[in-house]
Amino acid sequence: MAAMGALLKFGALLLAAVAACVAWEDGDVWDYDGHKLKDSDFLALWPLPQKVQSSAVSFQLSASRFQFTHAEGSSAGSDCSILQNAFRRYFDYIFGFTKKDRDQRRRNAAGSEVLELQVAITSPDAECDGFPSLTSDESYELSVDQPSAVLKAPKVWGALRGLETFSQLVYEDAYGARNINKTGVSDFPRFAHRGVLLDSSRHYLPLKVILANLEAMAMNKYNVFHWHISDDQSFPYVSRMFPDLSQKGSYHPYTHVYTPADVKMVIEFARMRGIRVIAEFDTPGHTQSWGFGQKDLLTPCYTGSSPSGTYGPVNPILNTTYDFMAGFFKEISTVFPDAYVHLGGDEVDFSCWKSNPDIQKFMDQQGFGKDYSKLESFYIQRLLDIVSSTDKGYMVWQEVFDNGVKLKMDTLIHVWKGNEAQYQAEMARVTGAGYRTLLSTPWYLNRISYGQDWRDAYKADPCNFTGTDAQKKLVIGGEACLWGEYVDASNLTPRLWPRASAVAERLWSDQGVRDISDAYVRLVQHRCRMVERGIPAEPLFTGYCRHEYSGV
Amino acid sequence: MSSRCNLRFLIPGLALLLGGVPSVLAVWPQPQQIRNSAERYSLSARAFLFKHADVSAVRSGCDVLDQAFTRYFTLIFPESGGGGTGGAHNRYFWTEADPFTVEVNVAEGPCDGYPAEGSIENYKLTVSPGQAVLTSVTVWGALRGLESLSQLVEQDDYGAYYINKTEIEDFPRFQFRGLLLDTSRHYLPLQAILKTLDAMAYSKLNVFHWHIVDDPSFPYQSRKYPDLSKKGAYHPFTHIYTQTDVRRVIEHARLRGIRVLAEFDSPGHTQSWGNGQPSLLTPCYRGDVPSGTYGPVNPILDSTYVFMANLLKEVTSVFPDSYIHLGGDEVDFSCWKSNPDIKAFMKKMGFGSDFTKLESFYMQNIVNISTMLNRSSVVWQDVFDYHEIIPKDTVLEIWKGLPEEYQKELSRITKAGHRVLLSAPWYINHISYGQDWRNSYTVQPQNFSGTEEQKKLVIGGEVCMWGEYVDATNLSPRLWPRACAAAERLWSDEVQTSSVDQAFPRLTDFRCRLLRRGIQAEPLYVGHCKNEYQGI
Q: Would you call B198 an interface residue with chain A, using a CB distance cutoff of 8 Å?
């Protein structure tokens, strides 16, 4: 009931509003008559834009007449494949794949129709052929009026976000016709790094699932796909240089792997949506599957004085280890265009290292005593040097920082541990030391519970910790993580959405957007919109969508 | 990063490695008796045949079996793409020398009936060189045997199909093995219901409890009272079940040996009924004036009982099962308390201020209506808890409380001589992180203090998937394979299946089989299936 209720409520409020212009104020939303509006008075915009001005004046959109066009003077034209593809995608979203006019005969009087959305890329380099990055400009301004709506953005990345917002402004009236209200939007993300982590090692995720979730990410203005591609359980990445890694380390060498073509497709599909792909190759722990295809890479564990036949983390005392890593990460640096690679570095179990006499000898030589975190640091530092030499920046899990590994100042520290007090203290420590950081602890969405747990995700804020403004500025965002122990293609999408949408709004919208009951009303509609677009996003609570999921 | 303690998570992995149960044993739920040997026979879709035994009481033309042959042929040979038919006289199969023959021998007809309380589901299956012999008393037993047979067929590394020499003697521990879907809190498209019925058959569940209406919506399209869904459904055309839809569900279920138990819950949980049936619900009062809101069904009006009798009469004509679920749970008395007419009625009846008596009064009337319609009633435990006088053949369904509480309730209800269904430990709409199927699996439905006679009154149980947080987007992976745990508990011998760790590798196998059959079943833990789910 909620979905329909909110829609009706919206309509009523719009009719009550009167057109007149008011200056924007930070973080607030006003109607043209100067009334401060509640967020839910809008058509379920999600995540909520920084500034919106809305009006009761509505225009029609006709599938047979509406066009996306490149504005005169735009630095992007019809050779800009990112925009051309986006136009097609959003046309489909807006007109519900029917592409037929249902309203030919009841067209409003002339002048009440939006005939085009002009897209103007305002900076000289639109970045049509580039990749999105941590510093990409995603801002945009949208003005919906008749006969032309205008979307202005410095770069294509902002235009993509603006197209999503435009599509969310369109609503279906009782006759099935598409309408849009006179609206002005000025928008930009609060955080530059807004990610979703998927784990393709504990369960293999078919390409189709990854692509569908990139679609859903774009609907939520996410901009980073953190691909936790390998782990203990399997190594599905097909390396050109070390093909045995997947040949012997994947669940199946042909059906459960990502070929170079697959990886390329993911990266391009993501690029088209303004999403970065950050690959994680977690070491030295979480590497059991690497051992099958790369002899001597892992540390042999000992029982007493003889090898037990089992293996531990990467062996940090052999030169061959670093030769391998240098070759491997050189390949990774060419395959994944993003400026960052995630190196993991979490949860290293020292017991195997402790059991191994060669490691013990090495520890003595290096003067590490019994402190195995020093050995871990030794490994990580050499790895960081290797990766630096490929001109990549790196992200690491918080332990690398906690263990005092020497890090370059542009290292991104990924906070994932602890309860609220603990992660807030960690954010304070990391930023206090001058490092940039991103938060995931409250957003481990693989952890499920009964009821509306999206509310907890929504309430968390990466800037809630004790620190100076300068420290807060070092927070670049966060990631929703869906670890794969209990998740595969069969349940991934409904488990992730719309729960990850809660995180998306926290990371995009103004810090002051916190009204959870208002968020509920918008999110109910947003999830129906995702369902309508083919994403099986699960319900928040009792109710219905006008178009239920039909992919059963 | 993934906050998990390595040691803890190694244990299930270890079980997977050490469990060592050969996959040929992976029949789910575990048959009562199964003996198999390493001797195996290869099978080919081109030389495989179902046929009726000469002495069988059932011949071709029996749609339950004919359609089952077709279905199981495709399930056994998924790569045949369903193009072949298992029809008894399909010459296509005889292009190769001696086909492997599955001979089905059913002792009693008919096969155009409905599965019912007391339907005998026993079967015997013998797989030997060149043939399998399946014997059962009824077609319903034959269906269970065909399911087991299909689960015995494996594919080797080269993709070749084989079956091991096997003998099975099997029967269900409980006659009532149900699954509840709630189509009121969210509308479930027909396809989602039919798919659930398919998966139920794979798990040998045999009752679909259709909680079809409730407070939020009334999707059942009544012939007699069309306004109920017209005004009470989420949408009068897209979010309803037409008579055709209902018939389709019942027939789809029948062909799989599944009963359809419809629930029309009253007097509470009826907000949506009020939209289409004026004056059915109790007007609530604030002080001396009606507040404009409504409470449970109004139990003091004759018109209420006329309506209920008509509605239930229709329902019993639509749903053939000899049981009907009348609900009777969670009645909120505050509205009744506020209403002056109700208060006057209470006084007149001498109920004092005990509103449970008023509820009893109502439920007795409703149960009597269903008795007159020749139906046995199932009601939620609340009805018993209020000491209502209910006919002895009424079945109570336990849904509340922790083990010690529901065990006490089992004692009490069976002591009073009523048959009982257990659902309390199987509310699998409640989810938590990790392998919560283990909790479902370790339930002991007959572990309560009582005599042997009392234990026999436990006729089974139900897995419940209430709909607050579930619709077509997430129903299947939330149901499967979690519901399979209860399915085995209700079918198999409890002693033989007492180890949850031994069940783990079998269930892991079975869930891959479900995926292969197109059921969107979620993983139990890390690992993979040869054929992963192909949707999103």
A: no
- How many other C-beta atoms are found inside a 10 Å radius of the C-beta of residue B488? 24
Question: Within 13 Å of residue A352, how many CA atoms lie on the same side as its CB?
Answer: 20
* For residue A284, cis peptide bond before it (omega within 30 degrees of 0): yes
- Does B187 sit within 8 Å of A543, measured CB to CB? no
Q: What is the pTM of this model?
A: 0.91
Helices (H), B242-327: 243-254, 271-276, 302-318
In degrees to the nearest 10, what's the CA dihedral of B170, B175, B181, B184? 160
B532 is catalytic: no
B361-418 residue pLDDT tens: 999 999 999 999 999 999 999 999 887 678 889 999 999 999 999 999 999 999 999 9
Residue B470: Cβ within 10 Å count: 26
DSSP string covering B63-118, please?
A: HHHHHHHHHHHHHHSGGGTT-S---TT-GGGGGSSS-EEEEEEESS--SSS---TT
Q: Which of B186, B471, B526 sits opposite A203 (nearest CB)?
A: B526
Tell me which residue of A225, A204, A203 sits closest to A213, measured CA to CA.
A225
Per the CB < 8 A criterion, the answer to whether B108 and B69 are in contact is no
Six token digits for residue B323? 């049981």
Looking at residue B60, its pLDDT comes to 85
Which residue type, as a one-letter code, is found at position A103? D
Q: Which H or E element spans position A156?
A: helix A156-169
> Which pair of tokens denotes residue B464?
């419940």
Mind spelling out the 3-state secondary structure of A420-446?
Answer: HHHHHHHHHHHHHCCCEEEECHHHECC
**Is B29 in contact with B487 (CB distance < 8 Å)?**
yes
Output the average pLDDT for chain B: 92
Cα B503–Cα B505–Cα B509 angle in degrees, nearest 5: 110
Question: Residue A36: beta bridge partners?
Answer: A30
3-state secondary structure string across A296-346: CCEEEEEECCEEEEEEEEECCCCHHHHHHHHHHHHHHHHHCCCCEEEEECC
Would you call A419 helix, strand, or coil by DSSP?
coil
Cis previous bond, B29, omega within 30: yes
Q: Do B473 and A549 touch (CB under 8 A)?
A: yes
DSSP string, A376-400: HHHHHHHHHHHHHTTT-EEEEEHHH
Taking the Cβ of residue B431 and every Cβ of chain A, the question of whether any pair is shorter than 8 Å is answered with yes
Q: How many CA atoms lie within 13 A of B265 on its CB side?
A: 27
d(CA B19, CA B15): 5
- Residue pair A494/A538 in contact by the 8 Å Cβ criterion: yes
Write out the catalytic residue numbers of A: 347
In DSSP terms, B127 is beta-bridged to B132, B166
The residues near A462 (Cβ < 8 Å, ≥ 6 apart) are A191, A427, A438, A439, A475, A477, A478, A506, A507
**Residue B64 CB-half CA count within 13 A:** 25
Burial of A416: CB neighbours in 10 Å, binned 0-12, 13-18, 19+? buried
**CA-CA distances (angstroms) from residue B460 to B38, B74, B487, B489, B499?**
35, 31, 10, 10, 20
Residue-wise pLDDT for A151-210, tens only, equals 999 999 999 999 999 999 999 887 888 999 999 999 999 999 999 999 999 999 999 999
Using an 8 Å Cβ cutoff, are B132 and B153 in contact? no
Q: Of B476, B525, B536, which is closest to A208 when you measure between CB atoms?
A: B536
User: How far is Cα A188 from Cα A378, in angstroms, rounded to an integer?
Assistant: 41
Structural contact between residues B76 and B43, judged by C-beta atoms closer than 8 angstroms: yes
Helices and strands (H and E) in chain B: how many: 18, 17
Q: Which amino acid is at A200?
A: S
Q: List the beta bridge partners of residue A338.
A: none
